[in-house]
């Protein structure tokens, strides 16, 4: 990593940058800047300046429909955008420029915030801050600052991830501006699971926990249990989603002619599995040949076992068959053909694994007290207030208190929607 005197004034996460060494990999080094409509009078000087530090690969002029502009913004920025109309007023609702660049000399640092961990490019951050000063509006210029964010932005804007879009790009910009007249992918619904999974692959960290055999074309299950980091997946699916009014854990949606129900599981606040285990499931995930992410075989086996014993408290015949097959593949010790017909013996195998991995039973009183929602809320409140504003924080706290203080079915029926459905399920 190169030494650099950074000038990051205005960058909200500056305090979360570490000095941990990051290896530079130039095999894929695509980034983007967005010059929103109200900043386009500065586009010429910005583009000229970009050529001094970056290699411009392509420039697009993108036009979103006025009808879907606000929902496009909301889906693009997800929870990072508390006031969508305010953002639209700042950036304008006309056509905007997307400038794709490669950085021949990236300066990379690890960024660890209370909500995420990523490797960011200091060059991208510094130039974004500089151009915002030129324009005179804090949020009038957008840029990706990491490989992950670039992939996210390109997937939504063009329905092509970084790898697929790179195939279409030349090494240098030919000075032409390509015009694109389209809203963010999924604005008019989703055709099928294949399309949805492609977008997920480029935008969120997730796994399909189970019942993925036959996906994306065959359905022999009631719902899709999907583990992901946080609720941003809901914004991507539905631009009308509200954190304050909608159930973040369950969603019925139409995919072409099929209706599918998603059961979303998140890293925090649900106590579905031990949080340490959840992080490892996402970290060690495998890519299924049919185009989506699943747990590695070890996590698949033990989460199935945990789900049967702790959540369901019964091992169905279908679960027995899957567990038997996986145990043989993994060569699990002390497993016989009769093991999963014996609940206590199966429970012993699970507990042995939990102790070995230092995972806890997330349904125990001890675990639930240590991972109390109010403790979590206190830890992130300052961060949320700093990044999204006091108004957003107060709204989130109010709603969370309402949900957390209620443990009655009458409340759920009266209010209709709960922000933490899984907590309710496991308490009843």
Description of the molecule:
The chain folds into 3 domains: 14-181, 2-Layer Sandwich (Alpha-Beta Plaits); 193-364, Beta Polymerase, domain 2 (2-Layer Sandwich); 372-427, no CATH class. Helix content is 43%, strand content 16%. It contains 17 helices and 13 strands. The protein has helices spanning 43-53, 69-77, 84-91, 122-135, 147-158, 162-166, 193-203, 232-237, 275-283, 297-312, 317-330, 343-357, 365-370, 373-388, 390-405, 409-415, 421-427, and strands at residues 30-35, 55-63, 96-102, 108-112, 117-121, 141-143, 177-181, 206-208, 224-228, 250-255, 258-266, 286-288, 292-294. The strands form 4 sheets. It has a 5-stranded mixed beta sheet, sandwiched between helices. The radius of gyration is 23 Å and the shape is elongated. The relative contact order is 0.10. Mean pLDDT is 84; it is low at 1-5 and 403-428.
Describe the structure using short key phrases:
428 residues; alpha+beta; Alpha-Beta Plaits; Beta Polymerase, domain 2; 3 domains; five-stranded mixed sheet; four-stranded mixed sheet; 17 helices; disordered N terminus; disordered C terminus
Which secondary structure elements does this structure contain, and how are they paired or packed?
Layout: E1 30-35, H1 43-53, E2 55-63, H2 69-77, H3 84-91, E3 96-102, E4 108-112, E5 117-121, H4 122-135, E6 141-143, H5 147-158, H6 162-166, E7 177-181, H7 193-203, E8 206-208, E9 224-228, H8 232-237, E10 250-255, E11 258-266, H9 275-283, E12 286-288, E13 292-294, H10 297-312, H11 317-330, H12 343-357, H13 365-370, H14 373-388, H15 390-405, H16 409-415, H17 421-427
Parallel strand pairs: 2-7, 9-11
Antiparallel strand pairs: 1-3, 1-6, 2-3, 4-5, 8-9, 10-11, 12-13
Helix pairs in contact: 2-3, 5-7, 10-11, 10-12, 14-15
